[in-house]
Amino acid sequence: RLEHALAIVERDVRAGGITGPLALTVQSWDPTGSAWVEFRGVCHGNGLRPGAGHDPQASLVQVADAAQETIMEVTWTVWPVCDVHDLGLHAELDHGTAVWRCTGNGTHTVAPIGELGQRGVHQR
Fold it and tell me: How many other CB atoms sit within 10 Å of the CB of residue 119?
């Protein structure tokens, strides 16, 4: 499930014009056996604990959050960004669906995770 979630998140990464290898890895230095989102050869933030893939939508949020954290650390840019408010989006569950949300002018859902760049949703 985590690999499937990463493939969905990768659609948003590519829609944002971000290039470079994106993968899930297990690091020998991590005694917990967590999976890590690796971007351009770098892991950052918190790993995904064993069992994180139990619920598909919750695992999608966890993978999106981990990918976002690593990508922003590597690129030193905020990703993804709400076109309306120019604020970074956050991966959250909204009524059981994994979405990207913006906190500008009240909280609003920008798109389901995996659908940035579709249906008129843009990124900068």
Answer: 8
Q: Quick check: 79 and 64 in contact, CB under 8 A?
A: no
Q: For 7-38, give one letter per residue: b (16+ CB within 10 A) or e.
A: ebbbebbebbebeeebebeeeeeeeeebbbbb
Residue by residue, DSSP assigns 11-52 as HHHHHTT--S-EEEEE-TT-TT--EEEEETTEE-S--B-TTT
- Strand-pair partners of 39: 22, 42
pTM recorded for the entire structure: 0.90
- Per-residue pLDDT of 74-113, as tens digits, reads 999 999 999 899 999 999 999 999 999 999 888 999 999 9
Q: Mind listing the pLDDT tens digit for each residue in 58-73?
A: 999 999 999 999 999 9
